[in-house]
Write a structure and sequence with these properties.
This protein is an alpha+beta fold.
Length: 285
């Protein structure tokens, strides 16, 4: 029996390769080393170019979103209305003296009194008001003091004269007090008040309120009777006020209400209050 040699496939490695397996690892390592030696210069030459490109490329910061801006559209223009026909100018009424003086105060910005006002704050009117007993409004301090002294009284005079500027009316307040004065046969305290040397108020405080209230009802029947409050009577420029009805009531006794009856000339009271309102802040400069 003859033996024929076996035909070997051309893809099959040679016998020595099969026997010497370490040679395969050595050949593979040589191939890898050759590839690395060939590719390494190419990779190193490309790195400087990438670094240069990175340096030359500017870094742009991230921009924040702009705030919304409100757009205001212009309002549509309206057609101008036709001008009305010119009316005939009305003839203005002549301003009163008080309105003219008030306008002067507003324009000047200071409470400066005119010459007529300066005179008004010291003028004695020809129609005085009858007050308590023999007294009339607009009497001077000297006249009243002289009359009381002639009657045997020793009046107490107190004065408060405020220094003022040249363009501000005077503000001189005086009071004359008399104790043990008798009115309607009732003894009490009489106090007389003056504004710029003109009597404007007379007040009587009785020692016996019960006796004096009966005299008030007899002498002044037109004065209202009020048990829960003060009584008041207005007659032209005259004002009469009383606390007697309240003072003699049970409530008034518990409250210790001061009994009084007073007479006033309302013109001088208003003038005194007007001075305080207009000239108090600019009185002393």
């Amino acid at each position: 029996m003859s033996t024929q040699p076996t035909t070997r496939d051309w893809l099959e490695p040679p016998l020595w390769w099969k026997k010497w397996r370490p040679l395969r690892w050595l050949a593979g390592g040589l191939i890898l080393f050759g590839l690395y030696s060939w590719l390494s210069p190419l990779l190193r030459s490309d790195e400087p170019q990438r670094a240069q490109v990175a340096e030359e490329t500017p870094v742009v910061p991230r921009a924040t979103a702009p705030a919304p801006v409100a757009v205001v559209e212009p309002a549509p223009q309206r057609a101008a209305a036709p001008a009305p026909a010119a009316a005939a100018p009305a003839t203005p009424a002549p301003p009163s003296a008080a309105a003219a003086e008030a306008r002067v105060y507003e324009e000047q910005g200071e409470p400066i009194a005119t010459e007529s006002e300066m005179a008004a704050f010291t003028r004695v009117e020809p129609d005085p008001v009858r007050l308590l007993g023999p007294y009339r409004s607009y009497l001077s301090v000297d006249e009243v003091v002289y009359g009381l002294e002639q009657a045997g009284f020793s009046p107490i005079v107190e004065s408060n004269h405020l220094p003022v500027a040249a363009d501000v009316p005077p503000r001189n307040l005086d009071s004359v007090v008399v104790n043990q004065y008798r009115h309607w046969d009732v003894q009490g305290r009489l106090e007389l008040q003056f504004f710029n040397n003109r009597l404007y108020q007379a007040e009587f405080e009785p020692d016996d309120a019960e006796l004096y209230v009966r005299a008030q009802r007899r002498e002044l029947p037109q004065l209202p009777r009020e048990h829960a409050g003060r009584s008041e009577l207005i007659d032209g420029n005259l004002r009469i006020a009383s606390s007697l009805d309240l003072a003699v009531s049970d409530v008034g006794r518990k409250l210790r209400t001061r009994p009084f009856l007073l007479w006033q000339d309302r013109r001088l009271v208003r003038q005194r209050d007007e001075w305080d309102r207009r000239f108090a802040t600019a009185a002393v400069r």
